[in-house]
Amino acid sequence: MNLRIPVLCFLASLLLPLRVEAAVVVRLGTLAPSGSSWELILRRMGAEWAQATSDELRLRIYAGGTVGDESEMIRKMRIGQLQAAAISNAGLAEIDPGAYALMLPMMFASYDEWDYVRQRVNPLLEEKLKEKGFVVLAWSDVGWVYFFTKSPMRSPADLRGMKLAGSHTESRTLDIFKWAGFNPVPISTVDMMTGLQTGLIDSLYLPIILAEGSQYYRQAPHMTEMKWAPLQGAVVMHEKGWAGLTADQKTEVLRITLQVGEDLRATNRDQEERSLQAMKSRGLEVVPLSDELVNEWTETVKKAYPRVRESLVPPAIFDEVVRLRDEYRKTAAAPR
What we know:
Elements: H1 4-15, E1 24-30, H2 37-52, E2 57-62, H3 70-78, E3 84-88, H4 89-92, H5 111-131, E4 134-149, H6 156-160, E5 164-167, H7 171-179, E6 184-187, H8 192-198, E7 203-207, H9 208-214, E8 222-224, E9 229-238, H10 239-243, H11 247-281, E10 285-287, H12 291-311, H13 315-333
Parallel strand pairs: 1-2, 1-3, 5-6, 8-10
Antiparallel strand pairs: 3-9, 4-7, 4-8, 4-9
Helix pairs in contact: 2-11, 5-13, 7-12
């Protein structure tokens, strides 16, 4: 009997790697630039997912719009190329237009009143998004949106003479800007730098942290000192990716992601100021506005609210946001 073959087979088996269960990989897209505070926190989240699940769950991040803009991320989640995204309310509004209600221009004057409203409205949005196949894992801040322009912009008349970047997927928003006399140019987020460089656009509105991380401010070095709208973000998973997790994995993912959302909210508002100071040190000019000009902007926007309520934001949620905002203002103004 030849013992060499069995012995060789046994020795060879010792050299083969042990069979390891394949980890579940969650592919997540985000516009957050690589190396930004947002992207670094998402990386920390992924590391904590892996640690909490004994490396059974891994997060793969595609930052800086490498998988497309938020509209494209939503499409890729629906077809399974991505399972998750860290996305703003502007993106979520493509799933359910109610998300626009928390980013209405000139609707909120402070983080305090915005926080009061969104704590009560976000649960409604979560239900709407769930009905359409998306699970909200956590909400977080993106920050106040400001106008960044190639030349100083102060009044609505100034902006009407500019080519304003507008989302190529938000036709109703573009229509409202046009109705108000502005000149929006449909463009993808990932094409805005090229648009600024070529003159296709000369103005845009975005959060301070994104302006610094994306370097847009180098091409549009004037920031109008007016809080246009607050913008929140969310980490969402498509229901197909969510269904692929075990019950224990879902528990850990929710626990960790909720904490990350809280941490991001706590640090983001300080990061806004740090980013602003960094841009100013590199040449950004902050263009101040008088109270009269702020009032002019407010009145200009208010004239558009009926049209926004009619064609952009569902009337019920629009009215609820206004009611809650006014409720907060009345409470805050009451004597104590």
